[in-house]
Known about the structure:
Elements: H1 6-20, H2 28-41, H3 47-57, H4 60-70, H5 81-98, E1 106-109, H6 115-128, E2 139-143, H7 146-154, E3 156-158, H8 167-173, E4 174-176, E5 182-185, H9 187-190, E6 193-197, E7 210-214, H10 224-236, E8 238-245, E9 260-263, E10 266-268
Parallel strand pairs: 1-2, 1-7, 2-6, 7-8
Antiparallel strand pairs: 3-5, 4-5, 8-10, 9-10
Amino acid sequence: xxxxxxxxxxxxxxxxxxxxxxxxxxxxxxxxxxxxxxxxxxxxxxxxxxxxxxxxxxxxxxxxxxxxxxxxxxxxxxxxxxxxxxxxxxxxxxxxxxxxxxxxxxxxxxxxxxxxxxxxxxxxxxxxxxxxxxxxxxxxxxxxxxxxxxxxxxxxxxxxxxxxxxxxxxxxxxxxxxxxxxxxxxxxxxxxxxxxxxxxxxxxxxxxxxxxxxxxxxxxxxxxxxxxxxxxxxxxxxxxxxxxxxxxxxxxxxxxxxxxxxxxxxxxxx
Length: 270
């Protein structure tokens, strides 16, 4: 395993923090463990050579590989299901009463390989499917990782990933592929999600403000000032009365956040 000297460690974590907001200042051993084989396989004899290359070239494919090695994209359908229960039983009835134009604006920020936005899409289809009036329920789903977005767009998932779904949802919204135990998202879901590349460190300038934002298990990588600045941008991009969901393992500083606290990991703009 390669060694990582103090200067190279500082150069790398400073670049990652300034470019992506991810704080790896306490993750030196993780960086060494996850990147050493990659550095060698790319033909470099040291972290110094590798970091020189990454910082000088800033090639998208190199940055993609770097991020994929140092962050985790673990997710599955109906992960942290209490959020989806609240979304279905509280948020959607509120939106049904108040959205007179029948256009919903929902953002899955840091959508990884697509399980979250597809789960939201199933809930929306189940809720609005038989209701009068044409509802625009399309979801915006963004991630910085091109590989994650490619997987999301492909919409191919194994049996284990789908295990928490009700059996009728699985039959209705997924098609078996030729490979045993592997399923493909049905077009009714695929067409309801708009996938885009987006860096959460960038200004949020989408056309519409959002009724609901999900940003779950993403800010665990950010330090407190970066997190608070991002939450402020989310808040400014949320309509009054809109909801904001974060991961169960995450929390916001109640004194600093402009959102109103509803319950653990659930907030609202008043």
